[in-house]
Every structure is written in C-alpha cells, then in structure tokens.
Amino acid sequence: MVLAQTNDNNFRADVLDSEGVVLVDFYATWCGPCRMLLPVLEGLAEESPDVKFFTVNVDESVELYTAYDVRNLPTLLIFKNGKVVARNVGAATKFDVDDLIQSAKDAVTE
After folding, report:
1. Pick the catalytic residue: 28, 31, 91, 107?
2. What are the pLDDT tens digits along the chain (110 aa)?
3. Could you tell me if residue 94 is left (phi over 0), alpha (psi between -120 and 50 degrees) or otherwise beta?
4. Which one of 58, 66, 89, 107 is separated from 73 by 20 to 30 angstroms, measured CA to CA?
5. Whole-prediction pTM
6. Taking the alpha carbons of 74, 80, 82, 84 in that order, is the dihedral positive or negative?
7. Which DSSP state fits 60?
8. Sequence-ordered list of residues with C-beta below 8 angstroms from that of 65, at least 6 positions apart, any chain
C-alpha cells in the first residue's frame, strides 16, 4: 500500500475499523522534520504491503490531533486492530519506524 491521506471524516473507516497494523503520521506542510520523514514512510509503505500507512495533516484535522493528544510534529501512532499500540514523537530513522511496526505486529490487543 502507498502512503494515503486520512482526515476527521475518514479516520474511523481508514484506521479504527481496520484489522492489522496501521501507521498514522501526524504532520504539517510547514514542519521540516515532517518533510524529512516522508521519504522514510514512503519507502516503508512500499516494503510493507501488510501494513496500512496514512498521513493526517494537523492543520486540516483538528479533531484528530486533539483526540490523540498530538503536541509535537511529526508524531507517529501505530494502531493494531483499531487500538494505539505504539507512539513516536519527533524525527525517526527508517530503522526506528520499522522497529515500531514490528513491535506493533507482535503486540496483543483485546
């Protein structure tokens, strides 16, 4: 799967109702570290067809970043079966993000 955009209106269907692992990148177009993380996420999205990747523009989806207590950018939330199982705040390497994804795959959710 490629990196896709989600928002306040589509988040439930795209993320919360999805089975398996979903990575959500909260970003802003004006955020330098967010722009640096984008190619990392695009590469991982190509390498990990079993994981869904979404971005959320915080300037357009105020309800979401408030609901998930996103205070710094970029913030990555990893969901498994609709529940947050991992969080990363700030810039991250490909290794860091891949490690988060792997730990989410191993996480047990109820």
Report:
1. 31
2. 589 999 999 999 999 999 999 999 999 999 999 999 999 999 999 999 999 999 999 999 999 999 999 999 999 999 999 999 999 999 999 999 999 999 999 987 76
3. alpha
4. 107
5. 0.95
6. negative
7. T
8. 26, 56, 58
Question: Tokens for 90?
Answer: 């700030």
The sign one gets for the Cα dihedral 87, 101, 67, 74 is positive
Architecture of domain 3-106: 3-Layer(aba) Sandwich (3.40)
Report CA 48 to chain centroid distance, whole Å: 13
Which of 34, 37, 64, 92 is labelled catalytic? 34
* Residue 90 DSSP symbol: S
